[in-house]
Every structure is written in C-alpha cells, then in structure tokens.
Amino acid sequence: ITIKEKYGLGFISSFKLALDKKVTDDQMVLKELLKPQFLVNSSIQNALPDLISLVRETITQEVYDIDVSLYKQKVLILTIDDNNKSVIINEKNIPDDNGIVFILLKIPTGVTLKYNSIHNSASSIVRTIMVDDSSTVQCDMHNNCDDSLSQTTIQLKGDNSNAAINHGGIVTGQSTIVHNICHRGKETTSSIKSNIVVSDNGVLHYRPKIYIKNSAINAQANQTVGILKSMQGIAKINTIPQLEIKRNKVVCTHGASIQPINKQSLQYLQTKGISANVAKDILINAHANRYIQERI
Asked: Using alpha carbons only, how large is the chain's radius of gyration in Å?
C-alpha cells in the first residue's frame, strides 16, 4: 500500500490551510489540520478519533528526546519553557509500522532550536513548528525508509525569526517528503536544502514549498534540491520546488537538479583501488549526508 493509497495526496494540503489561518488555540489548530475534506482516504478518516487524542509536554531541559513510539496515533503538543533559550530535540524509537504521529511545537521569543530526526521506518511523522520573535530553528533530517510520509511545516510568525531545513536520505521504496516554510513576520529568513538519493526502483514524491505572506517585509528565502538517481533500474521522481510570494521587495531563490551518479567520480575512485560497488556506495552516502551536520 503506497502513501498515496493510505492517506491521499490531499491530506498534505491540510497543513497549507492551517498556515493560512491565524489560530493559536490547540483545538482550533487540530480542527484545521484534521479537516475530513483533506483526509480523502477512508483509512485515515477512520483513525480520526484516535488522532484527536492530545498529549501536552513542556520542555525545560536543554536536550529533549521524543520517544515517538509513545505517541502513535496521537498529537504531541510541545511548548518550550520561556527560560530555556537553547534546545536540542531528538526523535527516538520511531516504530516500524504504518502508524502516524503529529507533533506540534511552539517556540517562544529568543530561542535557538536544533531539531534532529533519523527516520528509518514505515511510520509517518507530521511536524508543525510555530516560531516567535528572534528565534532560530534548524531541522536536520535523514530518511532511509520505504512507504513513509515525512512532513515538516515551519511557521515564522515572529519578526527576525529564522528557519533552516537540511534533509538527506536514501529512498529504496516509495516515500513522500513535504517541507513547508511560511514567512509571516518581518525580516525573516529561511532555507530548504535537500540531497536525496533514489535507488533502483525507488519512488520519491518531494514537495518543498516556501510561502511569503504580505506581512513578511524584507523576507529572504532559498531552496536548493539535489536528487541523485541510481544508474541501474527505474527510479521514479516527482518533485516540484515552489515559491508562493505575496509581498514585493523580497529575496527568494530556488532550484532543483536530478542526475545520475557521476561516472567520472566513480572511475576516479576505482583508480584508487576501490571496487565499483564500494565506490558507488561512497558517492551515494556522500550525497545523502551533504547537508546533515550532526547525526543522532
């Protein structure tokens, strides 16, 4: 069963609706995120009563581990304590099944957040991060899995807030990856950088999008997407980097490339006594890990 069959691609659009509405109450956010008309597949609609179950946590420590297995079919609402100005969040124990976890994270003023995720299972994780004034978020994500959904939405609500999503991984089956960053505050900056490898017979649906709202004066945003496909087999890749700009006088760039493994690089490694298979693995891992600064 593919991600499209399980959830329907319209499911992803629910997060755009949530971004377009200025809502602060948790119940209102969930109501928008889980609207039935966006959950077009009956299997996810039937799970709605379980998904509406809320768990709230306050982060007071500098390093916080999310045991994802505890929140399957639930919505985890995280709030960072106002006195905690530097936080590292690690996703741990992601279950290897078809469950889904929603994570809603609220970041107060003046916080620096590092969010780490290695996603090596068939589970689906949907994250929404709301950022206040003068706060910075860096998400480092690595996905090596089949039949999974990984979605990260960052809303830059506050002035002078910043966000970066660095994504790497190797797709061996079918994978849907969605990155959304929405600029609302003044003087906000963001970047989405992705280096993904699609192996033999892999299928990738990748949707990076940056929204610049009319209130986002002097916003700056950049997207860089690099996809490496296998030299053998048939890899299917569907990617559409998008910018939706409602404000004049902003600085935005985006670009995407899809290419096979560089044969010259492969031949060079072989001249150093490295076998063809090992050389290929080296190039694949170098590409997939290019933007990941720290592993979990």
From this structure: 19
